[in-house]
Amino acid sequence: MGLTSNKSPVAGDLLISEPFLQDENFVRSVILLCEHNEKGSFGLVLNKLSIVRLGDLIQDLSSYDTSVYVGGPVEQNTLHFIYHGDQLITGSIPLAPDIWWSGNFTELVDKLKTSDLDVDKFRFFLGYSGWSEGQLQEEIDLKTWIVCPSELSQHIFNSDPDELWKIILKNMGGEYQLLANYPIDPRLN
Asked: How many structural domains does the chain have?
């Protein structure tokens, strides 16, 4: 396909896997790019649910049945979070309009324990997706990833994770809209 993604990625952008990508970690993935600089890149897969619940991971939050996502194949013993709305946690980094990444974890747990935060504004992730210096740009040049501007990030929190890949592509319009309905395995079509 002749898809081009001329935009250089910046933190807050979404990376959409091309429909032919067979890497099981990234099939039909939507990744929120949290950090992108000369040293490398860091992102979180937004649409891969794990079987783990937040209460399974944090003893103080054992009553929370909140979903946890697989952020990527790197360091799957680490917990990360994003949230939307106003800045709620000290040290959070703004990524896109009303979307924040990370922050003071102790403060987060304390506020969740006392119900001072709406847990539905948060997404939690085990692991992350990482790229070394220049690696992400090489993959973009090879058309492994489509760079989507952060304006479409409003779909992160209000879309079914299983449909997020399609929803983002449809909202990008044009040739990307055609990809949204492309079968996972065209040989079975």
From this structure: 1
